[in-house]
Amino acid sequence: MHQKTEFKPSLFLLAWGITLLSLVVRPSPYRGFLFIPILSICLYLAFYTTSADIPSNHGVTCALFSLIFSSLDLTVLTDVQNELRLVGQKTSISTASLSDRFWWALRLLSSLRGIGWTHEPTTHILPYPTTSRVRFLWDQLLRTAKYIIIFDVVRVISLSNPYFLKGGPSLTDAGLLWRLTVLAHVITVYVSVARLYTIYSIVSVSLGLTVPGDWPPLFGYLGDAYTVRRSWGRVWHQMMRRFLLVESDFLAYKVLRLPRKSTFTTYFKLFIAFFISGVIHHVADYAALGHWYGGALAFFVYQAAAITFEDAVIALAAKFGFDKPTPLKKVFGYLWVAAWLTYSMPMWWGPLLTGGFLEAIVEPSPIMRLSRGEWYPKPDSGNVLSTAHSKIFHT
Q: Which residue ranges run through the membrane (predicted)?
């Protein structure tokens, strides 16, 4: 492997700034050329620089490749100033002043889910907050505290799980009950991302940069997670949704010229969307682990396969009159989704966890401070939690 230099945040900001510039300049057949330096900078940072630890490398590379695909959408594939509009915007922004175009572009680039834009996926986003500014900030502070506590509890427990420790056995080789513990990591990722979102919302609204209505919850209702499709399309964050849809549409309709009203086209686009997401996360695995044997690409393609299977089962059941969700059907649905994630997630997170991902998270622990007088939890595969795990999940 070639020698890597230290990650340069200034270059990442430069790539982001060039993307912003591509949205500010008026429509031009040459605007797409701005994608070349964006792509070049992001590839250099992803493959020739490194961050302080495994989680940082993973997160930074996810951000870099997300920027690549987002810029491909906004800079090359979409005539943004003529095609995209804020809700209530009557005319194209292309005729506006430089100042107006700058703030319009900044808002577009900052709104990964399209909140407040006509392309917002309204059926996949929870309702906007309607509370006062003070109440919104209080609610977000409480949510942040809740996420911190949940993250801390799950992390402390996870550090007693031998399958989550560096150099430990892989979840891909574990028995069924041990594999179930991968769901704890789903919780960790969920609350980590949600916590960042609430903190950003507090800062932004406090400074008067945005209003509470700009910050609908990042994740959907957990109660909607009774199918794999709904888990990914309604419950999980939708920050990649736009560019995944745009690029799968481009490949299907512009490149391959597939028929628009076709079952094959629908599922072709589904697989392409998950493939792109898999590429983003697989490169992040490479940056974190230093090799290409991570499981992200396979994991995300498997999600498309599961949704295809699931849709077929639901369509078959509908022919026999079982087309409406009921409480009992939802219970079976939750069990199905949990079983599917228990099966599929270890192929992705098994290598990352045994590579030291969890142990590399350096973050103070209120629980450890209160219980042991230590701020930072340490791997403890021999503690009481591990003993309980062994008795309950012995395989």
A: 7-24, 30-48, 176-197, 266-284, 296-319, 331-349
Q: What residues does 86 pair with on adjacent strands?
A: 117
The two three-digit tokens of residue 177, written as one number: 């009950």
Up-side HSE of residue 172: CA atoms within 13 Å toward CB? 12
CA 359, CA 351: separation in Å to the nearest integer? 13
Q: Which long-range contacts does 95-101 make (Cβ < 8 Å, 24+ apart)?
A: 98/24, 101/23, 101/24, 101/26
pLDDT (tens digit per residue) in 15-35: 999 999 999 999 999 999 999
Which helix H or strand E contains 50, and what residues bound it? Answer: strand 49-50
Asked if residues 362 and 376 have their Cβ atoms less than 8 Å apart, the reply is yes
Mean pLDDT of 371-393: 58
CB 119 within 8 A of CB 80: no
Q: Model confidence over 287-346: pLDDT tens digits?
A: 999 999 999 999 999 999 999 999 999 999 988 888 788 899 999 999 999 999 999 999
pLDDT of residue 393: 47
Cβ atoms of 273 and 104 within 8 Å: the answer is no
At 45, give phi and psi (nearest 5°): -65, -35
Start-to-end CA span in the chain (Å): 38
Nearest to 199 by CA among 232, 162, 151: 151
Separation of alpha carbons 281 and 273, rounded Å: 13
Distance CA 385, CA 365 (A): 17
Residue 136: the pLDDT is: 97
pTM: 0.92
Q: Output the CA–CA distances (angstroms, integers) from residue 387 to 162, 245, 309, 359, in the order listed.
A: 11, 46, 39, 20
On the question of pLDDT at 389 being above 50, the answer is no
In the predicted model, what is the mean pLDDT of residues 146-166? Answer: 91
- The closest alpha carbon to 352, from 7, 54, 49, 50, belongs to 54
Q: For residue 284, give the nearest of 68, 54, 69, 101 by alpha carbon.
A: 54
The letter for the amino acid at 142 is L
Residue 280, Cβ density class (10 Å: 0-12 exposed, 13-18 middle, ≥19 buried): buried
Rounded distance, CA 296 to CA 55, Å? 15
Residues with Cβ within 8 Å of residue 304, at least 6 apart in sequence: 267, 270, 271, 273, 274, 275
- 219 token code pair: 């994740």
